[in-house]
Amino acid sequence: MNHVILIGFMGCGKSSVGKALADALHEPFVDTDVLIEEQEGRKISDIFRESGEEYFRELETLVLRQLLRSEERQIIAVGGGLPVRPVNQKYLKQLGTVVYLMAQPDTLAARLQGDDTRPMLQGGELKRRIRELMDAREEIYDGLADVRVVTDGKDFAEIVKEIARYAG
Ligand SMILES: Nc1ncnc2c1ncn2[C@@H]1O[C@H](COP(=O)(O)OP(=O)(O)O)[C@@H](O)[C@H]1O
Ligand SMILES: O=C(O)C1=C[C@@H](OP(=O)(O)O)[C@@H](O)[C@H](O)C1
Ligand SMILES: [Mg+2]
After folding, report:
1. CATH code linked to domain 3-161
2. What is the pLDDT of residues 121-158, one digit of tens each?
3. What are phi and psi of 103, to 5 degrees?
4. What keywords is this UniProt entry annotated with (predicted)?
5. pLDDT for 19 beyond 90
6. Phi, psi angle pair for 52, to nearest 5°
7. What is the pLDDT of residues 27-73, one digit of tens each?
């Protein structure tokens, strides 16, 4: 399939850049977190608190299976932890062009400071938590990437232009 899929760490801009890219290309946009919240009728933080992380990860896999059935090309933002499961990695490759939005931990921390909507970052010092999770994930993101875009110090328009050049 020829969807464009945005991956990367929390705060790299998948949801906001994805929406801007879809608007620029006049294509539909979907965000796996939004699909999950709609289908569950509750917020991500409530899903984590009430049902646990494993339950949420299972929902991510189910959503990917739904997306694999959609024919029309879409811009797809996924949750930052979705690429960790091996089965999801296989699905992401099948979906289309994987774009890895990159950002340094300091940049991510500045963007996510004070945000309480991301359960994986709650409790503990923000920068340390970002580094720990990044250590476990960046190899996975890099291994999946067809296109890599550095986002530090760039605004949405610049990032959109860069992605459109390679994946438009
Ligand atoms: N390139 C950027 N420049 C400035 N702020 C950004 C940039 N990318 C993302 N942000 C901000 O960081 C926060 C997280 O962005 P979001 O799109 O939700 O990321 P993700 O979906 O990857 O977690 C938002 O407040 C967003 O406005
Ligand atoms: O990295 C993660 O494990 C998560 C990232 C979040 O999405 P964003 O990357 O869009 O913040 C969301 O799926 C959930 O809070 C878990
Ligand atoms: Mg997001």
Report:
1. 3.40.50.300
2. 998 899 999 999 999 999 999 999 999 999 999 999 99
3. -160, 145
4. Kinase, Transferase
5. yes
6. 90, 160
7. 999 999 999 999 999 999 999 999 999 999 999 999 999 999 999 99
**Residues, CB within 5 angstroms of ligand 3 (ion):** 14-15
Which ipTM value was assigned to this complex?
Answer: 0.99
From 16, 37, 133, 160, mutation site for ligand 1 pocket: most ligand atoms within 8 A of C-beta = 16
Residue with tokens 């938590």: 129
8 burial via Cβ count (<10 Å: 0-12, 13-18, 19+)? buried
CA pair distance 137, 7, nearest whole angstrom: 11
Within 10 A of 37 (CB to CB), how many other CB atoms are there? Answer: 17
Domain boundaries, the chain: 3-161
- Measured by CA distance, the residue closest to atom 11 of ligand 1 is 111
Q: Where are the alpha helices (DSSP H) in the chain?
A: 14-25, 32-40, 44-51, 53-68, 86-95, 105-112, 126-144, 156-167
Q: Give the position of tokens 């289309």.
A: 96
